[in-house]
From TrEMBL:
Pfam families assigned: GST_C_3 (PF14497), GST_N_3 (PF13417)
Entry similarity comment: Belongs to the GST superfamily. Zeta family.
Catalytic reaction equation(s): 4-maleylacetoacetate = 4-fumarylacetoacetate; RX + glutathione = an S-substituted glutathione + a halide anion + H(+)
GO biological process: glutathione metabolic process; L-phenylalanine catabolic process; L-tyrosine catabolic process
Domain of life: Eukaryota
PANTHER family in the record: MALEYLACETOACETATE ISOMERASE (PTHR42673:SF4)
Entry's Gene Ontology molecular function annotations: glutathione transferase activity; maleylacetoacetate isomerase activity
Residues in GST C-terminal domain copies: 95-215
GO CC terms, sorted: mitochondrion
Protein's recorded name: Probable maleylacetoacetate isomerase 2 isoform X1
CDD domains noted in UniProt: GST_C_Zeta, GST_N_Zeta
Length: 219
């Protein structure tokens, strides 16, 4: 035994946060055991805004991951760190062009869609307009995603292996349904989502399987 104490990673997570969900999928796929510290984004105006959590994540958002003695924020960054430090069950292809395709889908979702329908943005947009707003930006982004997937999808987003792109896609489809986006124009997105819905790593990461999921919503 050395004097390094291996502690389990801790994920600051909220059951319904699509960005926390991406990281939960990646951790599960790589079979990395972790503990969850639930941060309620709604209780008392949001626990993410309290002083203690701002020290963890100055953006006052989830997820944050404490791992290897460090705290890391931003979901894509966390997933790439996991990929670089835990090469088991790779979530990036070997081929450079395919890697670019994975990052492309991830960016379209994580930069081009999700931030526009994020809780802080919807609060700013206001109760009256928020549904139409979210539908507009998700539909616009999914049009691009569907087009990109038509060139690179196999069984999953990029080829026939599960990648970080799939970790981003599935939670965004859930959000689209939450805002009643018409998904019929997006058959490839729907097919990949269906392909993954019963995968154990995806099921275990689902909002309804989370310790902080309200009992009336949990399955
Ligand atoms: O209404 C709530 O329960 C509060 C927050 C969320 O679900 C999460 C988000 O707004 C961001 C997202 O996951 O895209």
């Amino acid at each position: 035994m050395g004097d390094i104490v291996e502690t389990k990673p801790v994920l600051y997570s909220y059951w319904r946060s699509s960005c926390s969900w991406r990281v939960r999928i990646a951790l599960n796929l790589k079979e990395i055991p972790y503990d969850i510290k639930a941060v309620s984004l709604i209780k008392g105006g949001g626990e993410q805004h309290c002083n203690e959590y701002r020290e963890v994540n100055p953006m006052e958002q989830v997820p944050s991951l404490c791992i290897d003695g460090h705290t890391i924020v931003e979901s894509l960054n966390i997933m790439h760190y996991l990929e670089e430090t835990r090469p088991q069950r790779p979530l990036m292809p070997q081929d450079c062009f395919k890697r670019a395709k994975v990052r492309e889908i991830c960016e379209v979702i994580a930069s081009g869609i999700q931030p526009l329908q994020n809780l802080i943005v919807l609060i700013y947009v206001g109760e009256d307009k928020k549904k139409e707003w979210a539908q507009h930006w998700i539909t616009r982004g999914f049009r691009a995603t569907e087009k990109l997937l038509s060139a690179c999808a196999g069984k999953y987003c990029v080829g026939d292996e599960i990648t970080l792109a799939d970790c981003c896609l599935v939670p965004q489809v859930f959000n689209a349904r939450r805002f009643h986006v018409d998904l019929r124009p997006f058959p490839i997105i729907l097919r990949i989502d269906r392909e993954l819905e019963n995968h154990p790593a995806f099921r275990a990461a689902h909002p309804s399987s989370q310790p902080d999921c309200p009992p009336e919503v949990a399955k």
